[in-house]
Amino acid sequence: MSSVWIAGGYQSDFARNISKEGGDTATLMAEALEHTFAGTGIAPAQVQVIHVGNAFGQLFTGQGQLGGLPATVCADLWGVPATRHEGACASGSLALLAAMADLESGRYDCALVLGIELEKTVPGDIGAQHMGAAAWAGHEGQAAKFMWPYMFSAIADEYDRRYGLDPEKLWAIAELNARNARTNPNAQTRGWAYGPESFTADPIANPVVEGRMHKVDCGPMTDGAAAVVLVNQRFLDRNPVPGPLSRITGWGHRTVGLPLSAKLARGADYLLPHVRGTILDAFDRAGLTAVDDLDLIETHDCFTISEYLAIDHFGLTAPGQSWQAIDNGDLEIGGRLPVNPGGGLLGGGHPVGATGVRMLLDGHRQVTGQAANQVTGARRAATLNFGGSTTTTAAFIVESA
């Protein structure tokens, strides 16, 4: 079991357009640092190492070398070792895993982990091209206008081929996440208007983007940052931490090859065995025996089919039967196992480098009773975050102290 604790953190409002505000990556990072230190009671001088998750900084903003940005905007961090991590949409989780390894090894005792991404600096079609770099460039998706809707439509095709797939079940996921987002003060879509046709096959209200993926099946482009402070037991023995703590008790991390076709070819009992294996690794490290040991899940729903596959890969249903959990209301706040109570990526927003960190922060807030959309009595949460077509997959278990 991990000996890493979460001391708190910060999430920016994902509905904002940082460029239109006159800001940039540096101003957003400065904001995240200021609020993280104020909210946790951890001073910059106590931070011994920094890990930054960012996927596409050079493409969207022209800014690389993001490991140097914390010290650029906060002089008290000058000289603190920092590293930028890239794993597409799992970049934030990779930063978290690196920080955990630092703390568990005893090399450092207090780590700042920050995920950040600006995606509204370019038109949407250009942004989609930038994000296509996380596929196997030049080898797959060449016919796609929008790479990732195209790729996840292929995953939906494979679900349909194996088990059958009703698109209305996917739109039910979109509707639930949009509904949860309305009461999340940081959610990107909290003020968006949806009509009765928005979650149907109506070609005006919900047009096709690529293949099976319609408008509401696709996550939005987002600007945002999320940060957490992680500490080990040695730090806690020597330093008072004012806020409620949670503990990372389990983690999983697997990486496979880039091509989606190769992933689907390896499917057996589960469509994507490495995703199932990542979840089970986290369960095993946390000493969990089944999905019902959890109180909620924060999962990667960049597309509705992403959450659909998470449902059965977590074990809420048998493989291919995710629709049963949807029909039964299992995913609702107050249901068997709430999934994405804050709206997930579809409703909450998806600044890709920040998503893994935001998920962990939401899990921390849930198990410490501080969440905006609080799950009553939550003591244990899981996260599932992946990059590309699940090339990089990470999962965490977070428990109350």
Catalogue the unreliable spans: none
Summarize the biggest pleated sheet: 9 strands, mixed
Please give the share of residues in helix.
Answer: 25-40%
Number of strands: 11
Shape: globular
Order of helices and strands: EHEHHEHEHHHEEEHEHHEHHHHEE
Tally of helical runs: 14
In angstroms, what is the radius of gyration?
A: 20 Å
Strand order of the largest sheet: 3-2-4-7-1-8-11-10-9
Strand content: 15-25%
Oligomer: single chain
Helix-and-strand structural type: alpha/beta
Could you tell me the mean pLDDT? Answer: 97
- Measured between the Cα atoms of the first and last residue, the distance is 13 Å
What can you see in these coordinates?
- This protein has helices at 25-40, 57-61, 69-73, 91-105, 124-131, 147-163, 167-181, 233-238, 260-265, 273-286, 304-314, 322-327, 344-348, 352-367, and strands spanning 4-11, 49-53, 82-85, 110-117, 208-210, 213-214, 224-232, 246-255, 296-299, 380-387, 392-400.
- By secondary structure, it is of the alpha/beta class.
- The strands form 2 sheets. It has a 9-stranded mixed sheet, with helices on both faces.
- α4 packs across α14 (352-367) and α7 (167-181) packs across α11 (304-314).
- The radius of gyration is 20 Å and the shape is globular.
Topology:
Elements: E1 4-11, H1 25-40, E2 49-53, H2 57-61, H3 69-73, E3 82-85, H4 91-105, E4 110-117, H5 124-131, H6 147-163, H7 167-181, E5 208-210, E6 213-214, E7 224-232, H8 233-238, E8 246-255, H9 260-265, H10 273-286, E9 296-299, H11 304-314, H12 322-327, H13 344-348, H14 352-367, E10 380-387, E11 392-400
Parallel strand pairs: 2-3, 2-4, 9-10
Antiparallel strand pairs: 1-7, 1-8, 4-7, 5-6, 8-11, 10-11
